[in-house]
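Standup notes
- DV: blocked on the single-chain target, sequence here:
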Amino acid sequence: MFIALVDDHPLLTESVKSMLLLQPGIGQVKTFNNADIFLSEKMVPLPDIIISDLMMPGSNGIKLIEIVRKLYQDKIKILVLSSITDVQTVKQVIRAGANGYLSKSSPLEELLEAIYEVKDGKQYISKSLRDSMLNTMFTEEQVIYHLSPREKEVLHKVCSGLTIKEIAYDLNLSAHTVQYYHRCVLNKLKVKRTSDLIVFAMQNGLYIPDINTKK
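- DV (later): unblocked, structure below
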């Protein structure tokens, strides 16, 4: 098995490389300091699995996943190994085309388990993230069920930072009508302030900010 490690922390990549080369079935491990270096190198043969960090200088992990999927479809498996563990980021990464997501706090045994599962064509989510993902999924379903389509639309625009007047203009509604929907959403989600509403929406998967804006 040929594994490519993409991470801008040399100490981490060299340590992981050394440990992986001791494992049965892993014959080659190559390290790259960032996604752009990996993408610029024409490798023959292709790696079986890419293990990539998420936040790196230049192209981030999401961009790497999107480009690899466009160029190679499913020929290469992708496992994200990141210190970012919020549920919405995990979901965004999986939707982008990753085969697995692992926290950097995971033990070596779990990294190996994830590698072999992904190599066999399965998806793998870090054990420490599974319960929170399940809880979020149930909360999401309950909340979305109680919001009308227009309320969801107003919620998303509020979370995007638009004012009542801007939302009214976008939706071709009066400001009074938008304020009514805004109050309905606050009441249904049992929060009192817009700032609390945004936090609630992000924590429960009702609004997912673009990861490319994260520093």
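- Follow-up: Residues 127-146 form the longest helix (20 residues).
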